[in-house]
Amino acid sequence: MIVDELKQLQKEGKIQEAIQKATTYLEEHPNDGKVLLETAYLHDRHDMDPQAVQYYQSALETELEDLDRRDALLALGSTYRAVGLYENARETLEIGMSEFPDYNAFYVFFAMTLYNLGDTDLAMEIVMTKLLETTDDESIKQYSRALEFYASRLDEVFN
Question: What gap in Å lies between CA 36 and CA 23, rounded to an integer?
Answer without folding.
Answer: 9
